[in-house]
What does this fold into?
Amino acid sequence: MTVVGQRSYRATVLDAVLDTDSWCTSHDLVKKTQLTYPQVLFALHALHSAGRIARMGRKFTAKWGALTLVREPEHNYELLEQLFHSLIKR
It folds into this structure.
């Protein structure tokens, strides 16, 4: 892994992503980290594969952010259970 000063590309990009409280594009991160686009893209994909950051969208429209930005889907299992029980009683 290549090192910028004393920090790796991944650590630099990870800090930039975690410092923002909204989704940002890879071009935003290039401006913020002052790394090249391929360096940022390589770091983003590696961090996403490692489960450290979240991605929304695909290819050129992808936005990146902290895992806290991802909402867990809300499941209403009680409602489904009531529905199934009502169908069985008929």
User: Anything to note?
Assistant: The chain has one domain: 3-89. The first helix runs from residue 9 to 19. DSSP finds four helices and four strands in the chain. The chain has a mean pLDDT of 85.
